[in-house]
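// run 5 | inverse folding | seed 20
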């Protein structure tokens, strides 16, 4: 059986890879007194394109990636409870108020890795 035949017989759900992983933001856990868990998921092609279109610079890309790829208890950082409680006009400002720069960077890195970005995802085959 050829590799193409095997690919065509593979369950489509396995190819779509909609996995979610949960991470603890330790600093926020210490502040709130219980685990502060953020669930991350990979971004699809349209989401990556959307983030690129709406972002002005590298910082915006990181913040918008987190807005697209992360949630807390099933809610986006743009959820109105977050924005109203923190007095911010959008989820981007919620992320800036809640997370430190290094925490933003790490969540951004995690989402990118889950989305298939990285130097180790494709390897040259030597003949």
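// decoded
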């Amino acid at each position: 059986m050829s590799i193409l035949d095997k690919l065509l017989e593979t369950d489509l759900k396995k190819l779509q890879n909609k996995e979610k992983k949960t991470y603890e933001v330790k600093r926020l856990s210490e502040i709130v007194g219980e685990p502060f868990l953020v669930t991350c998921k990979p971004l699809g092609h349209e989401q990556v394109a959307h983030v690129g279109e709406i972002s002005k610079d590298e910082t915006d890309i990181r913040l918008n990636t987190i807005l697209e790829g992360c949630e807390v208890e099933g809610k986006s950082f743009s959820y109105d409870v977050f924005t109203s409680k923190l007095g911010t006009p959008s989820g981007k400002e919620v992320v800036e108020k809640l997370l430190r720069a290094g925490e933003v960077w790490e969540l951004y890195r995690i989402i990118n890795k889950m989305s298939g970005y990285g130097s180790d995802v494709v390897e040259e085959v030597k003949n």
